[in-house]
From TrEMBL:
Sequence intervals crossing the membrane: 6-24, 31-51, 71-90
The organism's place on the tree of life at top rank: Bacteria
Protein name (record): YuiB family protein
Keywords recorded for this protein, A-Z: Membrane, Transmembrane, Transmembrane helix
């Protein structure tokens, strides 16, 4: 495992989920929707789409993920959560988004 590509991938997913979460928070006026969306929809959809149903069982498929995959998922989840925290603090400071 090379460190630089993993770090770039983690930063990319963090920034991407932070941006998407921030925009969704402004438009939908919810605070934690992007975090729930990431956990309930995006992660299971990615795991299911990568699963080769004819070759291995689902538990073997989950066991085949490596540290890089988990680090990327955690970085994306952290971006979604921090977008909710930043919108929450902006709303407490008196800013009104749309």
């Amino acid at each position: 495992m090379q460190f630089i590509p993993v770090l770039v991938l983690m930063v990319l997913f963090f920034v991407m989920m932070f941006g998407i979460g921030f925009i969704l928070n402004m438009l939908m006026k919810t605070t934690w929707f992007p975090s729930y969306l990431f956990i309930v929809v995006i992660l299971p959809l990615v795991v299911y789409s990568l699963w080769d149903r004819g070759e291995v069982s689902f538990l073997d498929h989950l066991a085949s993920f490596r540290v890089v995959d988990y680090l990327t998922g955690v970085a994306g989840l952290a971006g979604a959560v921090i977008s909710g925290l930043s919108i929450q603090s902006l709303r407490k400071s008196g800013f009104k988004m749309f």
